[in-house]
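Marked as duplicate of an earlier ticket. Keeping the data here for the record.
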Amino acid sequence: MTEQADQLSYEQEILQMLAAAVRAIGSVLPGNTELVLHDLRNPAFSVVEIANAHVTGRKKGDSVLAGLRKDKAFIAALEESQERVTLLPDYETFSREGTPLRSGTAIYRGRDSRPFAALCVNVDNNGIDNALTLLQTLSGVKIQPPAPAAEARIADQAHDSIEDLMKEIISNATGLNPGNRRADAKKAKMLAVQQMQERGIFLMKGGVEKAAEALGVTRYTIYNYLDELKNTDS
């Protein structure tokens, strides 16, 4: 068996074990908690196992881009690392409808340091919050709930294909006024690349090329922008 075939066999075994864990743990999870396993080697059809899919409205075979927005796991999934498992505990994401979710993710990397699987848990506490609000209202205590973020109110539209979804993400990210100065133009393009990265566009085949075309730069410029963003985060 070649080294590459051995690696693929290893990754497939890990995915099968994680899928069994999703089914077992998912059978006892409360209804507001989704557990989902992604095969990052096939991002266009990444969802291989999911429990309580109604939380984000996804199903088996859906894209890694579908269902959540502003997910830190997308950024982590782009990185090669000697760390075999990267944990991202308790961070905020949003469903397609703009509902805030509490999320946690584990990114698994193969022997070549590339990410191949992501195990994610997403908790929707909206029902609990509504129940607490109702109890407070019935008790006569007036409360002023915090206004939801404007971004969270904007629901993602349905898409017929992953290609449509990629176009929508790029369109939203490039809908910026770069200004007249060169520095302003670069800043706007960097912001657009950051938004595309946060939406996971660079996980998709052809994502870099499509982003470069939309921004009027070369694919190498996109890679330079990603390096600059990585160094800024560091």
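See parent ticket for discussion. Residues 33 and 123 are 4 Å apart (CA to CA).
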